[in-house]
Each structure stands twice: as C-alpha cells, then as structure tokens.
Amino acid sequence: MNFIFLGPPGAGKGTLAARAVSFLKIPHISTGAIFRAAIGARSPLGLKVKAIIDAGKLVDDETTVALVQERLAAPDAQAGYILDGFPRTIPQAEALAGFSRVDKVINFDISDAGVLERLGGRRVCRGCGHNFHVTFDPPAQDGLCVHCGGEVYIRDDDKSEAVQKRLEVYRAQTAPLIGYYREKGLLYDIDASPGIESMLSDFKKLTGSGC
Ligand code: AP5
Ligand code: MG
C-alpha cells in the first residue's frame, strides 16, 4: 500500500511514520529527512537547499520531484511506502501521479497552537533521527539519545521565524492538496492532537492494519 502523510509542520507525520513502518514493513520516505542528510553530508544537493530549508521555504518542485522519483524506483519501495512531506504542492502531486499510484492520503489535523507546542519542544537525534519532545518524549537527561547514544539537537528550521514561514507556506501551497485528494476519494482525516498511542490506534483503524 502506498501512503502519503499530509499535514502542517510539527503535526507528527514523522513520529507516526516511524511507528507505522515497524508493522507495515514498508519504507518511511521523508523528503525533509533526505534533504537534511544531504545538508549534513555537505553534498551539492545539501549546499543548494540549506538556506531555503532554514528559512522555512520550499525547495523547488523540479529538484524535489526528481529526488522522489528516483527514491520510489528503489527495490524496497516496490511493495509500498509512506511518503512523508511529499507532495507539498499541486504540481508535485500531478508529477507523482505520473510515476506512482497513491492508495491513501492521511491528513493530519491539528491547530496552530498544537504545532507550536510540538515544534517548540522538538529535539532530534543526529544518530538515528528519532524525533524527541522535551515533554512528550524526552531524550536522556544528559541530552544524548536514549536509543543510540547520539547527539540530540534542535533543527534550524524550528526557530520561531522559520516556523511562522513554514505555517504560511503550508496554508498557501500545501493545504490545497486536501481538496485535491478528497475529490479523488483518497483522503483520510486523522485527529493529530492526541498522544502518539491514540494516533497509532486511529491510523490502524483507518488503514485496516489492525495489528
Ligand atoms: P519536513 O522535514 O518534512 O518538515 P515538516 O513537514 O515541516 O514537518 P516536520 O518534520 O517539522 O513535522 P512532523 O509532522 O514530521 O512532526 P514530528 O513527527 O517531528 O521538511 C523540512 C523542509 O524540507 C521543508 O520546510 C522544506 O523546506 C523542505 N521540503 C521537504 N519536503 C519538501 C517538498 N515535498 N517540496 C519542497 N520542499 C520540501 O513531531 C513534531 C514534534 O511533536 C516532535 O517533537 C514529536 O516528538 C512530537 N510529537 C509528535 N506526535 C506527537 C503526539 N501524538 N503527541 C505528542 N507529541 C508528539
Ligand atoms: Mg518530519
């Protein structure tokens, strides 16, 4: 099954995807994570996108679509995938339709206040990429990841100016995808405001993966 996780920044897309792949046995493909890995490696792609991402803007459609098309052609994505953070514009959705089937689009519904609370407390592990939260899922006391011992850091785009920009960009360019996929009968709304266990249980009901 091919899933798209659609929602505002900080809605919990990455957190739910990390839990869901353990029973769905399909890859979690996050365009944001791919860009951050490229930035960390100082690759040509990383150098090209760093300033854009830190400012909370979108990377251009051409670059992003080419990256996703290549990733979805990999052997591990042939039995299904969770695409987290792509598509983010109507042109990206139209391009995706040209090279992959979409089965279910999960629309994460959360207030701006919920987003600000989550992004304000997010901490990310440089080693395994786990998304912690200082209140809801704290890392270890000494600031190291409880899972792999990696260094835990704050994303540059979680600074308040970038968060405001990301919310604006979401409303202007990404939210129209809700109507786009609803019209196609592919959209499934999920209340993203409760804790992760409750979201996981709702996701299993929505997707019929009741394990
Ligand atoms: P990306 O990495 O995709 O960022 P995003 O969409 O803004 O989403 P986030 O990763 O911030 O939030 P999330 O929903 O994954 O929340 P999380 O699970 O971490 O993209 C980054 C940038 O890359 C973009 O701004 C853009 O520049 C570029 N980019 C990426 N894709 C692109 C595309 N297609 N086109 C163009 N540019 C693109 O959770 C947040 C926090 O809340 C965590 O601390 C977590 O622990 C906590 N939390 C999560 N769920 C719960 C819960 N249920 N209860 C309590 N706490 C929770
Ligand atoms: Mg994420």
User: Any idea of the CATH class?
Assistant: Alpha Beta
User: What does the overall shape look like?
Assistant: globular
Q: What's the total helix number?
A: 9
Q: Strand percentage, roughly?
A: 15-25%
Report the radius of gyration as a whole number of Å. Answer: 16 Å
Could you walk me through the main structural features you see in this protein, from its secondary elements to its overall organization?
- With 211 residues, the chain is α/β, with parallel strands linked by helices.
- The protein has a single domain, classed as Rossmann fold (3-Layer(aba) Sandwich), CATH 3.40.50.
- Helix content is 47%, strand content 15%.
- The chain has helices at 13-24, 31-40, 44-54, 61-72, 90-99, 112-120, 160-174, 176-183, 196-207, and strands spanning 2-6, 28-30, 81-84, 104-109, 122-125, 131-133, 152-153, 187-191.
- Strands 2-3-1-4-8 form a five-stranded parallel sheet, with helices on both faces.
- A hairpin with a 5-residue loop joins strand 5 and strand 6 (131-133).
- Helix 1 (13-24) packs across helix 9, helix 2 (31-40) crosses helix 3 and helix 4 runs parallel beside helix 5 (90-99).
- The longest helix is centred in the last third of the chain and has 15 residues, at 160-174.
- It is globular, with a radius of gyration of 16 Å.
- The two termini are 16 Å apart.
- The mean pLDDT is 95.
- Bound molecules: BIS(adenosine)-5'-pentaphosphate and magnesium ion.
